[in-house]
Amino acid sequence: MQEWVICKTCGYIMDKRKLKDLCPACGVPAKMFEPYSERISPVRKRILKLDLHPIVVHFAQAFSVTIPLLCGMSLLNLPSIQNQITATITVLGVALPFAVLLSFLAGLLDGKIRFRKVTTPLLKAKIIFGTIMFLLACAIALAAAFHPSVILIMALSAPAVGCATCLGLLGVRLLNSAFPG
């Protein structure tokens, strides 16, 4: 049976047999490790190891940051690539609500598996920011598809980037959370 140890300094968890002289994460001596027993079920751990939420979140974040950057480039009025910039804004704008919705659903699943509920204060805040971001993403999609005004899309993108930033910061605060049994 596999024995696990945890670094008392940084929280890095690893197989005891693979432990050398130093913690591979923070470099403290191996004497800083202590025995560790897993507190989540194998099924929950297997689902969490898929990293669905962190993976899909990056699409929504990348789209929400790229759209205003492209809008800024569009304002430079570069004739040789103006059509490509406008087309890319449209494609990303229309895809954004789907990326945000997928991230939102993956976040709900992740929260339910990690914490067994999605009503903790930090998760409630993430749901609020996620809902606002989804509404902004829908507005961006409508603007990109039906009224491709660069100024309007840029104006809608600024708070969307703010929401993405807040969601990321809230997510970081949850990284070191202990899992309920």
Tell me what you see in this structure.
By secondary structure, this protein is mostly helical. The chain folds into 2 domains: 4-39, Single Sheet (Rubrerythrin, domain 2); 44-174, Four Helix Bundle (Hemerythrin (Met), subunit A) (Up-down Bundle), CATH 1.20.120. The chain is built from 5 helices and 3 strands; from the N terminus they run βββααααα. The protein has a 3-stranded antiparallel beta sheet with strand order 2-1-3, with no helix packed on it. It is elongated, with a radius of gyration of 21 Å.
Question: Topology, please?
Answer:
Blueprint: E1 4-7, E2 13-15, E3 33-36, H1 42-48, H2 52-75, H3 82-115, H4 121-146, H5 150-174
Antiparallel strand pairs: 1-2, 1-3
Helix pairs in contact: 2-3, 2-5, 3-4, 4-5
